[in-house]
Design goal:
This protein is mainly alpha-helical. The protein is built from five helices and two strands, in the order ααααββα. The protein has a two-stranded antiparallel sheet.
């Protein structure tokens, strides 16, 4: 009696495997839109951005508030363009997550110290009346943005991305003689 070995086809892609690149596309485009809108709303009024940074009353070295106020909008636009193109998605998501953690820490610090400021996240910023602060909604929003960045750190491969052949793409070479 001879034993025969049954061969089975490898399992097909799971629902998650099929959906993940599309979910990552949505996360990537949403985070890109957030950075682009944020940067574009601030880039036209850098003095207002400097005032927003100064309103946090952080012990920053002289001149750094101006550097941040003038540079941050351009940095946000750069992050948005990289994500929009799907170029360097994971590194851009890591930088995005770190920046969002800094923003979250800044808002918590302002709230804990009793400052009455607008975060300046989407333009504006600076001192406001005590009833005009929106720390909790700002924190919830930024945590949501950080979750988008976290998703992209874990799953950077997405549809319509320039880095689709990057580090996470599997290239399998089939050797027909040994199959």
């Amino acid at each position: 009696m001879t034993a025969t070995t049954a061969t089975t086809a490898p399992p097909g892609p799971t629902t998650f495997t099929k959906a993940q690149p599309w979910i990552s596309l949505v996360a990537r485009l949403a985070l890109a839109a957030i950075w682009l809108v944020s940067g574009l709303l601030k880039v036209g009024s850098p003095q207002q951005s400097v005032m927003a940074v100064q309103a946090y009353e952080l012990p920053l070295p002289s001149g750094l508030e101006h550097l941040i106020g003038w540079g941050l909008p351009w940095f946000e636009i750069a992050l948005g363009l990289l994500l929009l193109a799907g170029l360097l998605t994971r590194p851009t998501a890591i930088v995005s997550a770190l920046l969002l953690v800094l923003f979250i820490a800044g808002i918590i610090s302002a709230w804990a110290r009793g400052l009455t400021i607008d975060c300046g996240c989407f333009g504006g910023g600076g001192q406001v009346a005590p009833d005009e602060t929106s720390y909790l909604p700002d924190l919830v929003r930024d945590v949501g943005f950080a979750l988008l960045a976290g998703w992209l750190i874990l799953f950077p491969r997405s549809k319509f991305s320039l880095d689709r052949f990057g580090e996470d793409e599997e290239f399998v070479v089939h050797d027909e003689e040994n199959e």
